[in-house]
Amino acid sequence: MTDSLRPQSFADFVGQGRPKKVLEILCRSAKKRGGCVPHVLLSGPPGLGKTTLARIIAAEMQTRMIEVVASRLQSPDEIVGHLKGIRKGDVLFIDEIHGLPRSVEEALYGAMEEFRIAVPQAGFDSLMKQLGMGVSKPTMQTLDLPRFTVIGATTLAGLISDPLRSRFAQQVVLEPYSEEDLATIVLAAARKMDFPLAPEVAMRIAGRSRQTARIAVGYLQWLAEYCRAADQSPSVAVLDEAFALKDIDEEGLTRLDRQYLQTLIDAGCPLGLSTLAAQTGESPETLAQAVEPFLIRKGYVRKGPRGRVALPKALDKVGKAA
Hints:
This protein is α/β, with parallel strands linked by helices. It has 14 helices and nine strands. The chain is globular, with a radius of gyration of 23 Å. The two termini are 33 Å apart.
């Protein structure tokens, strides 16, 4: 989702009623006590608004947000580099925080719990010179940090270690969106794009959007591109043409979804993720994060101790698709 289409405040953010209310309360409380928001862990499937909510928290608290991706922090020095420039009240947003290497994670513990970091002497000497202070002799130094907020985002909460999880005072789980909320999101984005859209068309987009806001806005953008290229106004018929071209059905199932279901049906027995990945030509990560959760929620697939099993609804779907 482009930044121009993201909601900029809690009031503009549609859906996620309970999580949003929790975050609003945290911001309100922090303002009243003159402090910063406690560390927050946001979890849930991709595209539900974790990054957007983190940015709204920073905007609400009128402070900076420093965004980093966990997989790009390969050594403790890299996280220290971000922390030593932190200002009072700043938000450090760590996306896909479950991907932090253990050494980086351990370097973060003290910063989150005691607002201190251990800096190697060479790095400390350089930092002290920048601050106009003298150099001391020990090989390691402890640097005090101002109070700040860490917001971690994860799509795989089960991979976060217990020590890291315990350092988040608040843990908030985001849930898939209702079609009504998605239609509201689509209509709001369409207004920002100056792309007039009927509520019926917005609902049809919502129904294809896999209960995910990011997908809904992406599909709206695709419809807008299709309409401009064809010199047509958005209608249900035009929408059907646009999504047929991308092989996305009325429930949001893609060619990969149907291939996944067909593989399970043809096997006639439970299959493991690695086998499904080999059969479909996709990575296990793609299937586990982008395909399976939706198919399970919609009642097409069940995960059992021996593997994935296609349910009767899957046979109906593949049969219709065929």
